[in-house]
Amino acid sequence: MLSLARPAAARAFARPLARSAAGIAAVRLQHTLPELPYAYDALEPHISKEIMTLHHDRHHKAYVDGLNAAESSYAATDDVKERIKLQPALKFNGGGHINHTLFWKNLTPANSPGAKLAPGPLKEAIERDFGSLEALQKELNAKTAAIQGSGWGWLGFNTSNKKLEIVTTANQDPLLCAFHFFLWLCMW
Ligand SMILES: [Fe+2]
């Protein structure tokens, strides 16, 4: 007769192995602060060097450190309650890391070619769904300004209705639904 229950000796041997494997996985998955794709002062006068330094080196770094700590704690226990307790830290720091990693790539110096909305599919979609770039900016400003506390404003392509839409998320919540993203704004 086959049994799904393993002998006690096998369980005792398997547990340290499982913890060890989880430990190795945690080391392999250590998250790191990505380099900015431009200099800290490259976005002046719109965003100062001091704000970029604070935002990247301290805020984003804190999310990376918090995510690594939460993942290490998660991997170090097999207690379900302890793992459930870690969910808020994983969401907050994981979202903060994901969102800011996207955010840095989303910005570019005003004098770079990518700073201008070039003719093409994105421009056509903006004009189709918002009327104009100015109308998009107006709606984005209004919706992100209405965020209470901190949060994010997103311009995304809704894969359900095939339209560009502006949505917001609270705190560091990432946008985990049927969207492809084009633009991210961090509000704090
Ligand atoms: Fe931020």
What distinguishing features does this structure have?
Helix Hairpins; single chain; antioxidant; minor pseudopilin epsh fold; binds fe (ii) ion; alpha+beta; disordered N terminus; 188 residues; 6 helices
Q: How would you describe this structure to a colleague?
A:
- The structure is a single chain.
- The chain has 188 residues and is an alpha+beta fold.
- It folds into two domains: 14-106, Fe,Mn superoxide dismutase (SOD) domain (Helix Hairpins), CATH 1.10.287; 117-187, Iron/manganese superoxide dismutase, C-terminal domain (minor pseudopilin epsh fold, 3-Layer(bab) Sandwich), CATH 3.55.40.
- 52% of the residues lie in helices and 13% in strands.
- The chain contains six helices and three strands, in the order H-H-H-H-H-H-E-E-E.
- It has helices spanning 8-28, 49-76, 80-85, 87-106, 121-130, 133-145; strands at 151-158, 163-170, 179-187.
- Strands 2-1-3 form a three-stranded antiparallel β-sheet.
- A hairpin with a 4-residue loop joins strand 1 and strand 2 (163-170).
- The chain is globular.
- Residues 1-21 have low confidence and may be disordered.
- Bound molecules: fe (ii) ion.
- Fe (ii) ion binds at residues 55, 59, 100, 186, 188.
Overview in brief:
This protein has helices spanning 8-28, 49-76, 80-85, 87-106, 121-130, 133-145; strands at residues 151-158, 163-170, 179-187. The protein is an alpha+beta fold.
